[in-house]
Every structure is written in C-alpha cells, then in structure tokens.
Amino acid sequence: MNAPNALKYNAAQPKEFLKECAALFREKTKSMKKRIVVCAGTGCVANGSLDVFDALEKKIAADGLNVHVTLDYEGETRQGDFLRISKSGCQGFCQAGPLVNIGDILYTGVKVGDVDEIVETTLKNGGIVERLLYVDKHNKNRKCLGQKEIPFYQRQTRVSLKPCGLFDPEDIVEYVAHDGYEAARRAWCEMTPETVCEEIKVSGLRGRGGGGFPTGRKWELTLKEKNDKKYVICNADEGDPGAFMDRSVMEGNPHCVIEGMMIAARGIDANEGYVYVRLEYPLAVQRVRKAVEDAVTFGILGDNVFGTGRSFRLHVMEGAGAFVCGEETALMASLEGQRGMPRPKPPFPAQSGLWGKPTVINNVETLAAVPYIILQGAKKYREVGTEGSPGTKTFALTGHVVNTGLIEVPFGATLREIIFDIGGGVIDEKGEIANNAFKAVQIGGPSGGCLTEKHLDLPLDFDSLRSVGAMVGSGGLVVMNKSTCMVQMARFFMQFTQNESCGKCLLCREGTKQMLALLDDVIEGNGSQQTLDILDQVATTVAKGSLCALGKTAPNPVLSTLRHFRPEVEAHIFQKKCPSNQCKALCKPEILADKCVGCTACARKCPVDAISGERKNVHVIDQDKCIKCGECVKACKFGAVVGI
Amino acid sequence: MIDASKTLSINNMIVPIGEERNLLEVARRAGIDIPTFCYHSELSIYGACRLCLVDVEGRGIVAACSTVPEPGMIVKTHTEEIRKMRKVAIELILANHDQNCTLCARNTNCRLQTLARQLGVDTVRFKRTFERRPVDRSSLSLVRDPNKCILCGDCVRACDEIQGVGVLGFAGRGAKSSVVPAFGKNIADVECVNCGLCATVCPVGALVPRDDVDDVWKEVNDPRKTLVVQIAPAVRVALSEMFGGQSGTIEVGRIIAAAKAIGFDQVYDTSFAADMTVVEEATEFIERKKKGERLPQFTSCCPAWIKYAEQFLGDFLPNLSSCRSPQQMFGSIAKKLLPEKLGIKREDIVVVAVMPCTAKKFECKQSKFRRDGQWDVDYVLTTQELARMIEEAGIRFNELQPQSFDMPFGFKTGAGIIFGASGGVTEAVLRYAVEQLKGVKLDSFEFHEVRGDENIREADFNLDGIVLRLCVVHGLANARKVADMIRKGEKQYDLIEVMACPMGCVGGAGQPVANDWEVRRNRAEGLYKADKMLQLHKAQDNHLLMEMYDKHLKGGVGGHDAHELLHTSYQNRKRIHGLTMSVSDAGNEAGLHISVCVGTSCFVRGSQALLKQIVDYITDNGLSHVVSVDATFCTENCDRGPTVCVGDKLIFKATIDEVTKTMNEQLAGVRI
After folding, report:
1. Where are the domains positioned within chain A?
2. Which residues on chain B place their C-beta less than 8 Å from a C-beta of chain A?
3. ipTM summary value
4. Is the pTM of this model over 0.90?
5. Are A39 and A100 in contact (CB under 8 A)?
6. Looking at A2-16, A17-31, A213-227, B450-464, which range is the least confident one?
7. What range defines the domain where residue B464 resides?
8. Which of A16, A414, A585, B333 lies deepest, with the highest CB count within 10 Å?
9. How many other β-carbons are positioned within 10 Å of the β-carbon of residue B38?
10. Domain spanning A31-150: which CATH class is it, in words?
11. Domain A587-642, second-level architecture
12. CATH class held by domain A487-574
C-alpha cells in the first residue's frame, strides 16, 4: 500500500486528504461492474471459503474476465468494465457459510464445485444460481436473494457489523471512502479532549466488555489525571467460549477499531496505545497489524496525527493465552511482561494503569462504536437502544437454534426476537425446528447466567439482565433445548472458569474447584441437602469476595441454575434423577413392556450383553451390567427403550 | 476534639484517619484486628487472601487492604455475612492443605492454625483436594514444603521487593498454581541467598529454616567430642521471646546456663570474634582509604549479602572486605587454638554457632572454610533451634541461674555486641578507625549518626581533613540501588555496610518469628543497652584479643596468620557452571576444543546457526575425531557475540570463516 504517492495532499492537510482518498476510490471503482465478496471469517474459512476464493479467481482469469483483486491505486486506472473480487471479514451468517456475495445476491454453502456455475450463470450472464440461495423454511420455503430478503439479516440493526462483508478489510482507501477517519480527524482537529469526552458521555455508550461502565465517564476520569504519559488500550482478548464478536469486528473492520482508539487517545490526551489481541486470533492479529501499518503509512497514525504536531503511536501485541488476561489489570500486567494476574482496584487504570500511568482500557466493540458517535452525533446514536443502554450490541448466537452466527441488535430487543426471528427458532434433539423445545438461554458466557421462558419478552440491556441475575457479558448467547441438563451446563462453565482461574485469589482458586466437585457430586448421584447448602454458600462467598471480575462472576452459572432451575437440581439430589436424562450415573434405562415387540435389535447392539429376552417377547435390561451407553435407545425403532 | 472530616466509623467506633494507606491499617491502629495472610506493611498490596473483607456501607463487601480510607465511611468488620465468608475461606484453604499440624515446624506459631481457631472452624465441609508434593530439602538453610503453602505470595514479594533476588515465583494456573523456585528447580540450585526472609514472612510452615538440632544432639551425646558453642550478639536479645520474655531483654547469662545444661562444654561469645573482625576490617579499610583503592569498601559479615554480591554484583567483588564473618573467624581461631589450650585433638572439637540467621548455615559449609578435612564451624543453629533444644532438654529457662562465658573467647567489648543491629558494624569500625586516623583516644564512643531503621542511611565524618563517607544499608534490593548509584557516579562512599535482613541480624530469619518493626527495634535497643552496660566499647581495648594476636598470630593484626585464618576470597557466581553440552565429542583424543556460547545474547546473534556450521565443517572435513565441540553458556562478552572459543583463542563476533581459519591454525600447531 503506497497510496499517498498517488495523492496530492497528505494527512497533514487532513480534510483535503481524506476527500481525495475517497475520490480516488470512486475513480478506481467507477467502472466496476460487479463486486464479488467471499466471506473470510473464521467460520467460513473453516468450511473452505478460501478454496472457493482461489477457484473463483482462477476460473475468472481462465475465462478472460477483467478482474481486480486489489485495486491498484498507484497505476493507471483500468479501462472498461471490470469485476472485483475480494475477501471480507465475518458476515455473521456462519451457519450458512461459506458465503459469496455478488452484488445483491448472497450464495450460501458454496463449494469449490459450484464455482464454474457461478461464473457462467451469474458473472457472465447475469443469472442466478437458485440452488445456492438461502431457503426460508418459515415462509413456504421461499428462496431469498440476498441479505435484504433473509430474515436473519432483515431483523438485525447492523451498525458495527455493517461494513463486515462489504468492505475489503485490508484496504484503507476503501475505509476512508466510506467516511473512515473523518471522525478521528474531527476529534483531533476540531474538538478538544473535553468535548470528545462530553460527546461520548452524552451518547450514553457503555463498555461492551461485560461490565457496562459508562465509557465517557471512564475517559473523563482519565483525562483529569495529570501526566505527560497516558495510554489507550484496546482489550481484544476475547475469551468466552462461543463468543467471537470482537474477532469479527477486527477481522472485518479493523480500521474502525483503530479510529476508535485514536478518538479515545484524543479524549484522554494519550500519545501511545496498545491493541492486546488474543493469540488464538491470527487473522485478526494480521489484519489489525496491517491496518496499523497502513494508517502509519498514510500519516494518520504516528508522530504527527493529521498535521496537529501531536503523536499517537499504536502497537499490536498478541495475548499470552490466558482467559484471565481479558481482565483489565491482568491484561496490563501481561502487557508489561508480568504473569497475567489481576491486582486489587483501586487504584483504577484511570489513575494508575499500564506502567503506572493513567490508562483507558476499552473493549473492541466499544471502540468500534466510537467513530459513529463522533460522526453522527450522540443524539443520533441514542435513537436506537434503551434509555440506560443506548446503541446496538452484537451477540454470538449459538446452540440449539436454526441460524447460528453473529448478530447485531439494538439494546432492548427481546430474546424472543433474537431466537425466533433472527435465529429462526429452536431445534430439538433430532435437529428439527421445534419451538416448544426451548428451555433456556445462557447469556454472557461463563460469567453470565441463564434466562428462561419467562424472560423471553424481557428487553435485553445491561440493567435488565443484571436484575435477573444474568449479564450482557461479552455477548455470548447459547440457546438450549429441553434435552439440556442445567446441572451439566453449570458444570461445563464451572470447569472452564476453574481451568482459567489465575490462581491468585483464594476464593476463586479453591472455590471454583469445590463448586466443580460439588456439581460432580450432584451429577454422579452423590448429592445431599448439605451439597446444596454448601454449594450455595461457596458460590455466594466467591461471588462477593473474589479479587477480580472473573472470580466475582464465576459462580453465576451455578447461582442462576439454582435460582431458575432449582427443582431440576433437587431432582438430581433427592430423586436421584436427571429430568433430561443427560447425567449417565442417574439414568435408569428400561424397556417399556407395552411398546417392546421383541425384535432383539437392542440386545444385539448392547456391547455388554446387558439386555436379555426371547424373540417376540419383552426384553429386560440388567441394571448391574448396563453401562448406560444409550446404544439400545438408538437401536429401538419402537421407542420402547426409555430413561437414558 | 476529633476533626469529623478526618474520621470514619468502624464497628460503631469513631476512628481517626491518619497517614494510613488503607482501611486495614486504620482498623489495626484502632485496635481492631482484621485477619490477613497476604498483607505486610513492608510489601506491596496483593489482595489475594480475601480474609480482610469488610462491609463498607454503600459499597458492600470490599477488601480492607486495598480500600482507601475516606472520611465518613461506615465500616463493619465482623458482620454475620463476613464471618461466614471468612469461615468458608479458611475451610477452602484447609481442604487443600496438609493439615498435619502436629508434625509442622510452625505448630502453635501458624497463622492458619490461629485463624481457624479464632473463627471457630471445627470441620471442613469441602472435598479434600489436597495432593501431596515432594518437600524440597536441598537447601542448607531452608526447607520448602509445598504441601503447606497457601499461595499468599508473601515469600514471592519479599524475595523480590525487599531482597531484589526474586528466586520464588508462581507457576501454573488456577488450581495448579504453586510457588516454586525459578524453572521449578530446587531452592539450592537457584540464586537463593539463604537470607530466609521468605520463611520470616511465611504465615504457615511452607518455608521454614532448616533444622539441624538432631545432628547437634548426636554430637552432644558423643562422649569423645568436646562441644564448643559460640553465641551471636542478636541471639541474646531475642531468645527469651520463645519463653514468654519481652523482645530486647538481654538474657545472655541464662542462655549460657542453658547451653551448659544442654551439654555444651565451652560457651563462647561470637562478639569476641566480632571484635577481631572490627580490627581486621578497620585496618583493611584504613589501608584502602590511605591508598585510595578499592573504595568503597563493603562489609562482609552478612553471608546472604556475600552470596548476593557474588551472584549479581560481580564488578564489586574486589570492593568487598576480605574479612571473614565473625562466625567464621571464631571457628578458624577456635580450631587452631583450642586443641592446645584444652588438651584435646582437633578432630574431637565440634564448633557450633548459634545465630539469628539461616544464611550462616550455608556459609559454614563452603569448602573454603574447611581445613585439614574439618569444618571451621561444624553446625549452625538458629535462635529458634537453640530454644527448641532447651525445651527438649527439659530446661526451665526462666528459672536458670545466669552464668558467664568461658574465657578467653567469652570476652568482648561493646563494639562486638552492636554488630547485631544494622549500623553496628559501621559504628564499631568507626570506634577503631577514628582513633587510628586521628591518632588520639576518643572519649565518647557512640556514633548515633549511623543508627536507625531507614533502609539506606548516610553519614559523613570529617577527621581533620580526611572525610569518611559512610553508608548503611539493609535489604539487598537497597544494596543494589546503592551499587547502581555508585556505578552511575551519583554517589561516592568509603565504607558501606550491608545487611540482608530488616534492621540487620536482630531481624534475622533464625530469630523467633515476629514480623514486626517494633520487635526488631526492641532487639536493637537491647544490643545498644548491652553495649552501654559493658566496660569497654572499642575492639582495640579488648586486651584478651590483643593478647591472642601477640601470642598466636604471626604478624599481628592484618599480618600473615591473620590473612590465612581470618580473611577469605570471593567467587563470581554469575556463570552457569557444569552445564556445558557436548555437541560433537572427539573423546580423549581430542586435539582441539571449541566452545560456542549459546547464551541468550549470542543466540540472538546467530550462535545456534554458527554452531551447526562448525559441526558440519568438522564432519565434512573428517575432523570429528580430532575436534570436540561444546555449547556453553555466557562468557560475559554479550555485546561482542557470538563468542566462540577455539582452543585457547577467544573469537568475538565470530563468523564461520574466522572460526575455521583459527581452527586450522590451531590444528596445524597440534599436528606439528
């Protein structure tokens, strides 16, 4: 990338420079006939989207079509109509990947074998490959042409995610052409730190990392600290299982994060920043690095930001592979090269952060929302969302739901809208859509809690969720159907936090271990009233007394299970029964005499010869021999084997 | 009148806010103790034990150690909720703890035990998650028992923040966390200086001084052996604490009586040897001062400091006084003179030192302090260990009739007594050096300028134009600070006293466990009082010492014999020894050895690739049977790496061409 040579202006004359960049992009894309965008988010890549991209490129070249992969900003503008093919960040609809966008058309589940047909039909003849379109099963199997027709996209409000799937994340000129860095320019050239903070404060933006602390207030506190060195840190150490919002933003729109950081730097008067990216996100690391390099090349970042004579240097650092490093004080310790362990607050990072200097540390999504606020104004930002939680929030929707993927909705949206409209409904254990199979949603990952049927119409925001014992967290949304055992669910998350506890504070280190052991007791059928009592007591103690947010929220899955699914837990303990038949130790498989036809299928499948019975006679299971593998259930065509 | 704007309420009591850093200190000053494991006023705030939780109205439950006191706060320290939480916390610790209290060195002196009792924990409701791990007994000074560790991190911070050593750290995550020496090695194999501060701050028995009592008993009960014991100055002001006495009470007479009752044959005073150290060290100092060489002179009494300097301050080794510590001077003299005096064989004398110190145990077992197959000092017992022997022997300490030291090594001046407090060595040397330099007898003997408890103290003395610039340091991290300032030219001193332990030997890790400045101050006061009570205060006035020099040491003070018996030399321990890795071995026939440094800096500069090229060259040219190649660690030429040693030639910024050229030159020599 060496665009500045093609431009008369440079970033020291920012207004003209950004305008000219945009003009250059328009000029270069003037005769672009069609744009082909292949999703290169992690989900699609895992399904082979990069192979699809290569095949497309090859086929197009072989067929002699005029195609650009990257726009050549330095050389002569190519004459005649051309096609442009590029990769995008995550487009969100991971369930249906690999995704290929051509103009308004969205092809889903594209394989290498589909490439020839796509080129022939769509690129050469302007037709549509119908079989690759998304089918809306809720609407008479209607074929949807593109994002505008697919309910998954229709019902969302995509602000942060909007450019994902549209822009080439590696092209800074394209970002600038879409008003990119204009907000940063305004903040640095036309606003004071105080007015920047004020605007963010008025917008009501709250931290998306989990806590929901008002961002503007955080900045203001840091601005007030007098120090010639201050830092801005972008917390991109996204670690919740099943959460990938931050990754998608970084992969799909990295410049937006950088611009947010620049505005934060202006807001608190900082001249250095770090992006702390999770090690396991190589593509995000690569894209953010490239974006920083390009921004430096363009003279946007560096020692003379927009010709103001003030500097902002940005470094990208890979995380140390620990979940706890997403906790801000642990993250800073890790940045300093120390073991990633949280320290007590106060002092808060605003007073004494990285290397003891005042520091603002914000989550990726929070920072990505900032340019929009500066550009469109706080008032406009507040038009969506709720009074206490304005704006939109991205969620990673997974679990027993038809459409898994990344979604963005305004705060105040209900679970019902998310699960049934965007998510396309709940699927049961057989994989069929069955909306009455809904049991619960685990929201906020291992630190969150569960919501049940009675919360389906609760408008989701920071405060409403906290009031029912859950939290927005980083935004994981795991939908669970009735085949899910809530004790197992709590155990799953407890296992996670127990593994990821840094080991510093006693309550989290030993408490999570004990909670895990107590849940195991329940699952193994060894629970008693005392198990329940001390589980409650440890969970409360850990929640109230732990050092950091990881520990304080670690018991949430347990507490929320006890709160919303107490009868289910009690069934495990007192009736030694797992209502959803998931806890093997509590299962008692039996053969219903009225249904068994004596076909012997189960007996033949049983690996331990625990089933006996004559042909055409009712079979029985020897409980002592049975290892509860469930093969008999699968073998029986008459639904006669139950209880496992 | 209490200024309401500077008060807060704790348990409905109005409490003034002073300079305290946190609520915990405010409460403790007000006489309300809040339990903690990980809080030490000298260390950084860690916030890990979660026992100091208190309820602050409007804020809920917070940790007192990390909450800044604010006027008007309403604090409750023992609500029902907090009581329950503390109980859960203690139970959680116990579920993952050895729980073998009766077999623990810290039995009856353990904070976990005390808190469990205070909080009424009578059962552990949780699952036992304890897994036994091996105990590290590698160190001569300390025993590390991970089975008792509660992961409060006090040792980690003390070692790093106060001593600047940092050999202990956390490894593993979550439930697998443990405190281990660097790279999980044994404590003897890392750069531990044996100061034992970790054991002093450890609230439980995870780090304790090594116990040599059994071995000493065996010697005591061996009729062939004559047991000679020396008692260090700091012991006499602390031992009685183990028997209910006040810290700082001078109990030397009873200690002697107890030692005799245990079965020690001769009971002497290390202070005699300290007087000897004063004259030797002061003489050395005056000489250096006059010549203006190897200044500043660092004292050498503290073995933890010596090891620290040998490891980390190699460039200052020539500046260390070459004097042995009083303990080692005593041992060396005792083993030389006592056989004749007592009419016994040298090998039948067992010298036991009773010290406030754990590092002394390490010091006495260094090969340089071994003569004719015998250690100068055979055993070192800590104050704690002597107290335990007294208990084991069934001696009612408080009822003993005081006795006197045996002569001549029981005779001392106040100079040898104040060695036990930080600043004492400096003051003792001054009492000698000032008279020597001025050439007149001093009337007064006290130099209050060098006393005190600040970490780094400075004092200048102008003696008719000769200026003595002195510095007194305790805590090894502070010693490093001083060394750095000297290197940068920011400070110039003539004499620097370094003691590892807080306030010097009185705060040693072998003393009764009391992590308290007040106790250390009392003990130091006790020593200065003992000095006052003696008739003589200057080492040069110790006529028995001078007589010994005249009669037995050829050359007198600083002379030939003194050098052989009372002085020593130091080794740079910065190198990793014995870790050379053979890469290509030509066996005993090897005509030429090549070693390639693979230390970090050389590695970064490509020594690994170079090593491979050299081995390839040797293989390709059929030299494998002639040339041996080793990978070694640092040769201390990091800025000129990669460093390769070919035969006797050291090549800096080595390239393969230069190495092969030199190799061929050297081989040509071998072949001729």
Report:
1. 31-150, 172-381, 392-484, 487-574, 587-642
2. 45-51, 53, 60-61, 63, 65-68, 81, 84-85, 88-89, 92-93, 95-96, 125-127, 129, 150-151, 153, 169-170, 172-177
3. 0.87
4. no
5. yes
6. A2-16
7. 214-398+407-566
8. B333
9. 26
10. alpha beta
11. 2-Layer Sandwich (3.30)
12. mainly alpha
